[in-house]
């Protein structure tokens, strides 16, 4: 039972720390340590539900851009003088976004070579692989590559933007679309770092209540969906068919918080009709139900929509 756990001084004070968990107390106002730990565990549940969405953003974004540039610029389009920028002829030193792209690919190449040597015990020269280097790039690479420095006549944008982003554009002007896409990437990269580094996914300046925290999370899911749809509509179809978008939205609800706080209603399944009703409500309302059978009162069941 949840009340038998040693929340203090073991779990909260020592293993998690009050510094980390205080923000949960301030925003969600739990009545006791069981509820406090519940909302903390709910956040890990949220991060798990968001992970495949953010991973798809990162992977499809880099591959869409790479496949747009490779046919004409070659497999190592980021190397040498192939990647021109707006200030190319005016300044000796590249502007920050351009230098950041170059540095990121140098770093990715080194990571790839180090990984090959480590895993395959290779000594001496290692020939970089296009796919291998691309897979080692940091998410920030694509934020910098979408900078206005690469927008102009003879540059990669706008020439390849429609090839990289095949969804419905929010505007006709390429410069506006580029700015829109970059803003989405900037926002989602910061959000991705928070989620992947085990920080509160809901946390943002101005979030002071549970309602605001949940609203913030749904806003981020909407931005993820917007960017994935811009990259290619098939991204969204894949997530919807497999229930990943519904799962993310369901996870970011007060009902899910209550479930982790052990405050959710326990449904008694005393007949097949009761089970059928619960399953139907679960699918229609996109919610999870805690349940149990009369013959197994100590065993909890969870009914989830597909």
From TrEMBL:
<keyword id="KW-0645">Protease</keyword>
<dbReference type="GO" id="GO:0008233">
    <property type="term" value="F:peptidase activity"/>
</dbReference>
<protein>
    <submittedName>
        <fullName>CAAX protease</fullName>
    </submittedName>
</protein>
<dbReference type="GO" id="GO:0006508">
    <property type="term" value="P:proteolysis"/>
</dbReference>
<keyword id="KW-0378">Hydrolase</keyword>
């Amino acid at each position: 039972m949840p009340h038998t756990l040693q929340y203090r001084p073991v779990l909260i004070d020592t293993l998690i720390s009050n510094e980390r968990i205080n923000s949960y107390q301030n925003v969600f106002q739990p009545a006791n340590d069981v509820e406090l730990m519940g909302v903390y565990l709910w956040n890990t549940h949220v991060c798990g539900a968001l992970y495949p969405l953010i991973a798809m953003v990162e992977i499809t974004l880099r591959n869409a851009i790479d496949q747009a540039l490779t046919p004409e610029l070659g497999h190592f389009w980021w190397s040498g003088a192939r990647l021109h920028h707006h200030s190319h002829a005016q300044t000796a030193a590249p502007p920050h976004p351009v230098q950041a792209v170059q540095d990121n690919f140098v770093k990715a190449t080194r990571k790839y070579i180090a990984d090959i040597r480590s895993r395959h015990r290779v000594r001496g020269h290692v020939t970089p692989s296009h796919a291998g280097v691309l897979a080692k790039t940091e998410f920030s690479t694509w934020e910098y590559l979408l900078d206005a420095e690469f927008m102009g006549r003879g540059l990669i944008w706008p020439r390849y933007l429609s090839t990289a982003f095949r969804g419905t554009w929010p505007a006709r002007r390429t410069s506006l679309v580029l700015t829109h896409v970059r803003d989405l990437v900037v926002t989602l990269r910061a959000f991705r770092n928070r989620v992947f580094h085990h920080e509160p996914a809901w946390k943002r300046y101005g979030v002071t209540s549970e309602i605001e925290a949940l609203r913030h999370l749904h806003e981020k899911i909407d931005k993820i969906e917007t960017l994935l749809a811009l990259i290619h509509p098939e991204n969204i179809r894949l997530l919807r068919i497999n229930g990943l978008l519904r799962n993310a939205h369901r996870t970011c609800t007060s009902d899910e918080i209550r479930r982790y706080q052990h405050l959710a209603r326990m449904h008694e399944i005393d007949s097949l009709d009761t089970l059928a009703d619960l399953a139907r409500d679960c699918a229609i309302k996109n919610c999870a139900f805690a349940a149990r059978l009369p013959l197994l009162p100590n065993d909890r069941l969870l009914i989830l929509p597909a």
